[in-house]
Amino acid sequence: MASFSRGFLDQMMQRRVLRRWERAAELAPKQSLGDLRQMRQRALQLRQPLDRVLHVADGRLALPLIGSDTFSKPLHTDWAWRPQLWRGPIFPAGIAAAATKSKLGDEVTLFHDCAVSELTVRQI
Questions:
Q1: Is there a contact between 23 and 39 (Cβ–Cβ < 8 Å)?
Q2: pLDDT at 89 (0 to 100)
Q3: Which residues, listed in sequence order, are joined to residue 54 by a DSSP beta bridge?
Q4: Which residues are bridge partners to 94 per DSSP?
Q5: From CA 95, how far away is CA 82, in angstroms rounded?
Q6: Which of 13, 15, 22, 78 sees the fewest Cβ atoms within 10 Å?
Q7: CA-angle at 58, arms to 41 and 3, nearest 5°
Q8: What is the SS3 assignment for 46?
């Protein structure tokens, strides 16, 4: 099993990166639009893997037992399934003018029979 590095240099680098993004957040209101676009793009690149880590961690840490993916079910229910869409954040979080067979995360596909799609979906 791979281990997430916890060495001295890793901790030092983590603190430095955190300070950098805290400073970027403070400077954002004063940045030019071009610089702000670049800053936003970098933040989005960082956000996607962070969201994935948080999603997996939140899901696993919220489980009742280690290694179990059970959750409470209604009385007399034989089985239940909770799709990724209901367990945590997905990417993309929303779709405007969603076409049929649009993917919502890895486990859900949206089907509809609208000739002109006026369907908008967003996870909040």
A1: no
A2: 77
A3: none
A4: 122
A5: 21
A6: 78
A7: 80
A8: helix
Mean pLDDT of the chain: 83
Q: Are 58 and 90 in contact (CB under 8 A)?
A: no
Residue 101 makes CB contacts below 8 A (sequence gap 6+) with 109, 110, 111
Q: What is the DSSP letter of 28?
A: G
Q: Does the pLDDT at position 11 exceed 80? A: yes
Structure tokens at 86: 């209901």
Which string of DSSP letters, residue by residue, matches 24-60? HHHHGGGS-HHHHHHHHHHHHHHHHHHHHHHHHHHHH
Sign of CA dihedral 23, 25, 31, 37: positive
Q: Where are the domains of the chain?
A: 1-80, 90-124
CA distance 100 to 109: 8
Full-model pTM: 0.51
Query: ∠5-8-9 over CA atoms, to 5°?
Result: 80
